[in-house]
Specification:
It is built from 8 helices and no strands. It has 125 residues and is an all-alpha fold.
Length: 125
């Protein structure tokens, strides 16, 4: 099995030729009106950098000295109690119930009320 590219495909496969170097002269003529132009008050206003808002506080340093009171503080008994993790029984012990699937005798003999039976019926649409 052999194939060859068409002349059109060969032409499209060639890299695009681009001129090298600067595309215009480094010096070009500037009109006299552009040289003597002055900015309008609105342009000057728009050129100003935004100022920070009134209540702005710069970011605090990452490290700061710890106060003496903080170093000597002692946690209250309630804080100690709240800081202790809650220790729960494992799921193996909590969910293991050998009688989970045994139906009680009372449940076998139960009779539902007329209202419960009415509510248990599917809606007629």
């Amino acid at each position: 099995m052999s194939s060859s590219a068409t002349p059109r495909l060969e032409h499209l496969a060639r890299p695009k030729s681009r001129p090298d170097g600067p595309f215009r002269e480094p010096m070009w003529p500037v009109s006299k009106s552009a040289r003597v132009a002055t900015a309008t008050p609105r342009q000057i206003e728009l050129a100003k950098a935004k100022s920070v808002s009134d209540g702005y506080l710069p970011a605090r340093t990452i490290e700061w000295p710890v106060s003496k009171a903080a170093r000597k503080s002692v946690a209250t008994p309630r804080t100690d109690e709240l800081s202790r993790p809650i220790i729960r029984a494992t799921m193996d012990h909590v969910q293991f119930n050998p009688d989970a699937f045994i139906v009680s005798e009372a449940a076998k003999k139960a009779r539902c009320s007329a209202r419960i039976e009415e509510l248990s019926q599917p809606l007629q649409r």
